[in-house]
Amino acid sequence: MKSNITIGTRSSKLALWQTNHIKEQLKKSFPQIEITIKEIKTKGDHITDVALSKIGDKGLFTKEIEDALLNNEIDLAIHSLKDLPTKLPNGLQIGAILKREKPHDVFIAKDKIKFKELLPGSIIGTSSLRRIAQLKNLRQDLAYTDLRGNLDTRIKKLYAGQYDAIVLAYSGVKRLEFEDKITEHFNPLDILPAVGQGALAIEIRNDDNKIKELIKDLNDNDTYLAINSERSFLETLQGGCQVPIGAYSEISNNKVVLHGVIVSLDGKRLVKDTLITNLEINDCKKLGKDLAHKLLQNGGKDILLEINQTIDRNCAFTDI
Q1: Could you read off the pLDDT of 165-219 as tens digits, one per residue?
Q2: How much is the pLDDT for 47?
Q3: What CATH number should be reported for the domain holding residue 155?
Q4: Is 194 a member of any domain?
Q5: Burial level of 183, CB count in 10 A (0-12/13-18/19+)?
Q6: Residue 144 located in a structural domain
Q7: Active-site positions?
Q8: Are strands 4-9 and 34-39 parallel, antiparallel or unpaired?
Q9: Would you list the DSSP string of 111-146?
């Protein structure tokens, strides 16, 4: 067993909370190990004034950390799983996925006004095309504006008057103890989350058996299986670029239930469906592929092709 390890992470408050959370769990099992945290700035941390959809966001919040892992500067990396592309660099793998926090989005308004009660023309801040498209499907009369920055920065921008309301992932809001600011919780079947939202992933080198042994008990098998269905769904559709695609998996009666959606940028066309399979890794991966192909056949292909022609970014769709 290694006597000391270095964990790589982004430097935001949320990323450091997540990393320290995992550090504490490792220390409980291996109190003798010295654990160091190395903060690493990613491209996404440096570019904060451009919409994510315009950057070309494969590995936007992970590449520099993965480079450090490949160069043996760190022993493992902690990621919000929704930031981790479906195709990892050669030599790296997901070593563990922790038990998932609730993956839904939340609505935060300055005056505690519910989403359906907002006045027409109200300004909604979010950095996600997935959220914007699904929200537009519900309300076309609001103004949806890009919102970048760390979670606490986004909340500050709201109360500074730049927005009437913002939409965030519940998991981050809870972890940074901003739950008292939540106006409304979106049903994850109405606004489907990003793939992997709410889950934390530990990325490691393929050949590092000592680290594999160290982290193996942190893996939550149910979360691992459910998330694999979502990541297979995303990979089949477009491989990790930011487009209006959402997925939500849940386990019910020893089955994985996967919900998926593809939405046009204007929110006027939406293709949504659900499939169910067994709690087995190969079945879960097949489930994601099957649901992706079903949505493509039912109109999703035309939506994605249109989006690919509309948005200028360094991304390519697969299997459409």
Answers
A1: 999 999 999 999 999 999 999 999 999 999 999 999 999 999 999 999 999 999 9
A2: 60
A3: 3.40.190.10
A4: no
A5: middle
A6: yes
A7: 83
A8: parallel
A9: T---GGGSPTT-EEE-S-HHHHHHHHHH-SSSEEE-
d(C-alpha 55, C-alpha 312), whole Å: 9
Residue type, 156: K
> Residue 76 is part of which domain span?
1-98+199-219
- Write out the two tokens for 9: 């992470």
* Integer CA distances (angstroms), 234 to 58, 135, 210, 231, 240, in order: 13, 20, 31, 5, 7
Instruction: Give me the number of domains the chain comprises.
Output: 3
Q: Same structural domain for residues 12 and 75? A: yes
On whether residue 193 sits in a domain, the answer given is no
Express the helix, strand and coil content of the chain in percent, nearest 5 each: 40, 25, 40
Q: Work out the number of other CB atoms within 10 angstroms of the CB of residue 217.
A: 11
Residues β-bridged to residue 5:
35
Contact (CB, 8 A) for 264 and 308: no
What is the C-alpha separation between 286 and 313, in angstroms, rounded?
29
Please compute the mean of the pLDDT values over residues 239-263 and round it to a whole number: 89
CA 300, CA 292: separation in Å to the nearest integer?
9
Q: What's the pLDDT at 150?
A: 86
Decide if 37 contacts 7 (C-beta within 8 A): yes
What single-letter amino acid sits at 207? D
Instruction: Give the separation between CA 101 and CA 277, rounded to whole angstroms.
Output: 22
